[in-house]
Amino acid sequence: MSAAPNNIELSIVVPVYNEELIIDELKRRLMASAEMVTEHYEIIFVNDGSRDTSLQKLKTVCEEHDKLFYISFSRNFGHQIAITAGMDFARGNAIVTIDGDLQDPPELIAEMYAQYKEGYKVIYAKRTKRKGESLFKLLTAKMFYRLMAHLVSFDIPLDVGDYRMISRDVLDYVKKMKEYDKYLRGQIAWLGFKSTYVLYERDERKFGETNYPFKKMLRLAFNGITAFSDSPLKVATSMGFTVCLLSFIILMYAVYMFIFAKDQVLPGWASTIVSITFIGGVQLLCLGLIGEYISRIINNVRNRPLYVIDETTAKKKED
Ligand code: UDP
Ligand code: MG
């Protein structure tokens, strides 16, 4: 695909949400890591509607260095959208996305770049250990990645997050996938380019707390599954079938009892109640699942802009 007309070799995209305490260190380590690779780099910070002084901090560091840019959203749009905006503006040949809380060590970028030079187009940073995460998060994350791998029809890498390097042609394709309920990991895996990974231990958060409470995690997991798999819908259908069959058997039994054992007919209300509630429950579940998909159809059909930029210094690539 298109060669970059400007000669930026490396773009680093960093979503930032309430990270005021860490921005100076973040900038320092990112710049040092980028310089290990090339002097032709840019770092794009995406301020995702932070409520603290992150934006002011970002403005200050971006004024000091001409390779640093920021994009600031009008409100909080979420992690995946923030990364997407940064990628839309990235002009480099290789594009890194990395969290802004320094849980992912920027020093890995050189190692990723070496793999990129070997010809890999997607280089994941794969977590061998995750420090300072609750057992619950570890377990649910592990379960989710495996469930996801089981449900989709393409290879999905295990235990990777959004810390990765992709090449320009991968980026150009990702930009064409304008889905609203973003699950970038899935999108990139779906593209199926030649990929590899570098290993690292995930650090604990130094400041602040996770911006991914359980509810957001669940949302991301649901987006991931519904964006790439119809299996939940199929579960609903097969459950519907099973229950129908079951109720048919019960019906046959009732008819049999009525004809051949009329005098000992069961005082039916318990079984009636049970079957009514059971079927009611199954119906609700199916409706709920269908609703999930419909809400996603609506989201995509609306065709709203994914994000709203309040102000920015980042420049788009012209091609
Ligand atoms: N983040 C964001 N918008 C949000 C939530 C998080 O841009 O609504 C950023 C956050 O600043 C961090 C990254 O996304 O750089 C990952 O978030 P977090 O560390 O809270 O997630 P975790 O590491 O716990 O999965
Ligand atoms: Mg984090």
Folded structure, characterized:
The protein is α/β, with parallel strands linked by helices. It has two domains: 212 residues, Spore Coat Polysaccharide Biosynthesis Protein SpsA, Chain A; 72 residues. Strands 7-5-6-4-1-2-3-8 form an eight-stranded mixed sheet, with helices on both faces. Helix 5 packs parallel to helix 8. The N terminus is likely disordered. The protein binds uridine-5'-diphosphate and magnesium ion.
Features:
single chain, 319 residues, alpha/beta, Spore Coat Polysaccharide Biosynthesis Protein SpsA, Chain A, 2 domains, 8-stranded mixed β-sheet, 17% strand, elongated, disordered N terminus, binds uridine-5'-diphosphate, binds magnesium ion
CATH topology of the largest domain: Spore Coat Polysaccharide Biosynthesis Protein SpsA, Chain A
Low-confidence stretches: 1-5
Q: Would you tell me the structural class of the helices and strands?
A: alpha/beta
CATH class of the largest domain: Alpha Beta
Distance between termini? 11 Å
Output mean pLDDT.
88
Determine Rg (CA atoms, Å).
25 Å
List each distinct ligand once.
uridine-5'-diphosphate, magnesium ion
Number of helices: 10
Helix content: 40-55%
Task: Order the strands across the largest sheet as they lie in space.
Answer: 7-5-6-4-1-2-3-8
Shape, principal axes of CA atoms: elongated
The total beta strand count reads 8
Order of helices and strands, N to C? EHEHEHEHEHEHHEHHHE
What percent of residues are in strands? 15-25%
CATH architectural type of the largest domain: Alpha-Beta Complex
